[in-house]
Design brief:
Blueprint lengths: L5 E5 L4 H12 L3 E6 L2 H13 L4 E5 L5 H15 L4 E4 L14 H29 L2 E6 L3 H4 L5 H21 L4 E8 L5 H4 L3 H8 L10 H12 L10 E4 L5
Parallel strand pairs: 1-2, 1-4, 2-3, 4-5, 5-6, 6-7
Length: 244
């Protein structure tokens, strides 16, 4: 489905980003990963290569525009183009607002929202010349409904939604589609550490009666990265089991 495509995935060393990277590689794409965890980067690239794929892993802080631009240049030097960008990198620094430190607000907005700006800006220059591309931004249902103790995270993910809708309008004439995915509660390393009572409380709010799987998000990302989604632009698609 993605043969001859080059996909750049931020936060691709672990979690949902890794799931997307491996699936895209299985579908024929060459994979570039930006992440901060070097061991996670190596493990993901090794897994891709063991399955016959081709990958490039780079340690990049997406909140730093210069780092992003330099690393994006390395991806183009190796693969010649970038067909797909998945803005997945994200962090949390949860606290009630009155207890939230300014540095925790800034850190989350820098990575989750400014990182999307930085990577999109760097990759857009390449996609404009190609006159084609797919940009997939990973938001969250928390950016739609909010959540106690996550004002910074919710603001960053809501910002991604507004950014997606605006950039979709800007880029459409260059045959570049920009969409967002808003996952609900997905089985990841983070949810695995939650107390069982908290997990059951969340599941009770989900009509499907379970947490989502990383593959649920990756499969939608694959559809949005493929030609099957060429007339879908500026959308925000929830993957939440009907939660909201």
């Amino acid at each position: 489905m993605l043969r001859d495509k080059v996909a750049l995935i931020t936060g691709g060393g672990q979690g949902i980003g890794k799931e997307i990277a491996i699936l895209f590689a299985q579908e024929g794409a060459k994979i570039a990963i930006f992440d901060l965890k070097e061991e996670a980067i190596k493990d993901t690239i090794r897994e891709i290569e063991q399955k016959g794929g081709e990958g490039l892993g780079l340690r990049v802080n997406v909140a730093n525009l210069k780092e992003v631009e330099e690393a994006t240049g390395k991806v183009v030097d190796k693969f010649g183009k970038i067909s797909i960008l998945v803005n997945n990198a994200g962090i949390t620094r949860d606290a009630l607002l009155l207890r939230m430190r300014e540095e925790d607000w800034d850190a989350v907005l820098d990575v989750n929202l400014k990182g999307v700006f930085n990577c999109t800006k760097a990759v857009a220059k390449i996609m404009f010349k190609q006159r084609e591309g797919k940009i997939i931004n990973i938001s969250s249902i928390i950016g739609i409904r909010g959540n106690v103790g996550q004002a910074n995270y919710a603001a960053s993910k809501a910002g991604i939604i507004g950014f997606t809708k605006s950039i979709a309008r800007e880029f459409a004439s260059r045959n570049i589609q920009v969409n967002a995915i808003a996952p609900g509660f997905i089985q990841t390393e983070m949810t695995a550490k939650m107390p069982e009572a908290s997990k059951q409380s969340i599941i009770s709010q989900i009509p499907s009666g379970r947490l989502g799987e990383k593959t649920d998000v990756a499969n939608l990302a694959l559809f949005l990265a493929s030609k099957n989604s060429d007339y879908i632009n500026g959308e925000v698609i929830k993957v939440d089991g009907g939660m909201i």
